[in-house]
Amino acid sequence: MEVVCELKIDGLAIALTYENSGLKVGATRGDGVTGENITQNLRTIKTIPEHLNKDGISLEARGEIYMPKSAFLELNKRQSEMNQKLFANPRNAAAGSLRQQNPQITAQRELAMFTYAGILTNPEIKTHEQTLLYLKDMGFNLNPNFKKCKNIQEAINYCKYWDKERYNLDYATDGVVIKINNLAVQNELGFTSRAPRWATAFKFPPEEMSTKLLDIEINVGRTGAVTPVAVLEPVFLSGSTVQRATLHNFDEIKRLDINIGDRVLIKKAAEIIPKVITVLEKGTENTGTFEPPEKCPFCNTKLVPAEGEVNLYCPNTYGCPAQLKGRIEYWASKDCMDIDGLGGSIVAQLVDKNLVKSPADLYTLTVDDLMGLDLFAEKSAQNLYNAIRSSKTPELSRFINALGIRHAGKEMSELLAKKFKTLNNLKIAKMQDIMDIEGAGEKIALSVLDFFKNSYNNELLQKLEANSVIPKTIDDSTSKDNFAGLAFVITGTLSAPRDNFEKIIKQHGGKVSSSVSKKTAYVLVGESPGSKFDKAKTLGIKIINEKDFYDLLGES
Ligand SMILES: [Zn+2]
Fold first, then answer.
1. Ligand 1 center to residue 322 CA distance, Å?
2. Residue 452: its pLDDT value, please?
3. I want to staple 426 with a disulfide (CB 3.0 to 4.6 A). Which of 103, 404, 420, 547 is the partner?
4. Is 19 helix (H, G, I), strand (E, B) or coil?
5. Active site residue 542
6. Does some domain include residue 310?
7. Beta-bridge mates of residue 264
8. pTM
9. Distance of alpha carbon 549 from the chain centroid
10. Domain of 325: which CATH number?
11. How close is the Cα of 305 to the center of ligand 1, in Å?
């Protein structure tokens, strides 16, 4: 069976409709469905013909818009010079460029298109290969590397060949699409609900690249853990430029027998985080294996090994600027206080300029302080200022997570919040109370107790509270039972119709009676209460106002 093999381009699928040989509409194709109309932007791409080479033709052409790797590297260089956001990979850059409001910006982005399919009405065309060649005649740009294969073995050879050669292309490809050449056979096979039966894709394995190890950087994280990071000669790998890779720890360095100047092979683990796999060739500058540092490069404190772990630690918990940066960055991160725009480079400046000595100091920063940072204009300073302010009333679980209590990550923070409901309850929690939580052993319980015993942490909590950074208490409305079995009587005028309060009481398992008796648990009193108020006083029933009511509910 004859097949056509084409490189699968890692770009954006689009469809172009031509009427009477003129480009009428161009749109994105998400999941096989026509998406956004982006005709004006597509008209700026040189490899898309405005008019076909022959008159009077109507057809639909499909292809992939991509950004060449070289253009991508240039674009990111320019973005970086203008202090604009960098694109993660050529595909994102192409997508961002296509969705510009202003076609002139799209025009500057050096996008290109490879056409890979057409819906034609020409009866003389019997094969996919003929379709491609016809499209080429009409003025479309084809990927020159497509190949008609006589049998499946040729197709396999094609895949093997391009798995190696793809690194030398100026565009990203993530696999090969293999299509049956004969259109009549294609028609007969048709489609499943998801895809054509006459085509299949081969995905290339994760890329590996060789590059030079320029340096080994020492990172000190928020917990004091010291990790070595490989600084690499920039290399393009699985769709993005890689300049750094993890080396995990110093045992790993010993295992790899690696040193600065060596040629190394890197790959993306799970295709996201790059890692160094092996040394290909020892460098001439340094012999032997890289030795771990004896002192913290940030605070000069002697590093210590951690018990039962391969990592080294900087023991200067509250004096090490690297650990402080790590803590602040963690504080601002998504699963913690979620302060938009407060990333690593800004945190580093705030700490280096002595503007921030603890997370609490974030909340006394002024717009002027922020405008003093490198490359910060008034608008970005104001935005960050607003983002910090609006983070002052976090969910309790996020706040606990942000504190960075050892061994208590995101999930444990949620469990602690659920169990203790308020920060104060957590502060005074007993060992056994914490250990009652499923999954919380002695190690976590001790760590929580230690945290709240520590004077630095207590000072931090006081400062946060003084700056009105106060986590929400847990709203128990979802558990619906904190009024279980309690009888309420309502009297006087409240801020909302009585029905509302009756509803809330019932939702939480309580009931509402019309008269006060010894069985009444609470009398909720509004303005100008009636005789029920007096009766409650006589019987010694607990009298509460609206605020007390909401406190009981756990909302304030
Ligand atoms: Zn240190």
1. 6
2. 95
3. 420
4. strand
5. no
6. no
7. 211, 279
8. 0.55
9. 40
10. 1.10.150.20
11. 13
